[in-house]
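step: validate -> pass
step: tokenize input -> pass
step: predict -> running
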Amino acid sequence: MKKLLFLCFLLPACAWSAVVEHDPTVLQCQQQQQKAEKRLFKQIKSEVNAGFTDSLTELGTLYYFGRGTKKNYKKAYRIFKKAAANGDEYARYAQAFMLRRGQGVKAKPQEALATLLELAQDQFAPAQVELFYAYQDGAGTTKDPAQARHWLETAAAQKNTSALLLLGLELRQNDPQTAFEYFKTAAEQEDKKAQYLTALCYDGGIGTAADPHRALEYMLRSAKQRYAPALWQTAQWYQAGHGTAASAYQAFRWTRLAAQQNVKEAQKRLAEMYAQGIGVRPNQKLAQKWAKEAQKKAPSQQAGGLEERN
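step: predict -> pass
step: emit ->
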């Protein structure tokens, strides 16, 4: 499995020179991942059915994110509720998170807030971050910027990656050095967005000395976790030879991955690459396909998300 995943990233240039849209090695990699997730879901569900309550939270997480099964907020909420009744701290947080936002259950923000406050006071960082959002948007309580800031800084002090990112983004213009330190701290915990932002800091000399090679290092770490903006930026850097030798093959490779993550600029560029044979053999059918994809509207994203248990 490790060897297969390695091949997905490091296919030799001779193989990619004749690449087609549905590359068999990439498809095999995706199928292996899907099979592994399905096996995990089956295993965890069987443990829960056998009465092993410690697996409840993991089962709820699989339903919440749709891993190995279809995403189902209602089932996830019910399972988190059972796990929370058994004293699982993460399940209590997940239940409150969903209850505050009305995911799989009718929203009850005040009830959710009470649970979040208990967890936050017990130094559970994800709950502290959710309190930041609650006091910021006033759901279940009155808007209170001071309280929002307090809980965000409290979570950051525990090196919670979400809190570090939020503070870093806030301070990026007025205190770039501190922002860079926040980003890098989160990046070293393998947070893909933090790795992307750290790369941008190294690239632009924001809060640190400019270093295009370090920038590419962190950008690649993020891209290998399939973070869409990093995939597209990596493609552009390989195209321009920024921090590395220029490579049409690598530019195509990363552009294609970014396009598959619904990055509109990448989809448009991929259509051009297929049409003109840049880093790949010309293929007018695929050029037309990606040109059409680029015209479709990108889905909107909600700020803040359920943090997974480490």
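step: describe -> The two ends are 22 Å apart (CA to CA).
step: cleanup -> pass
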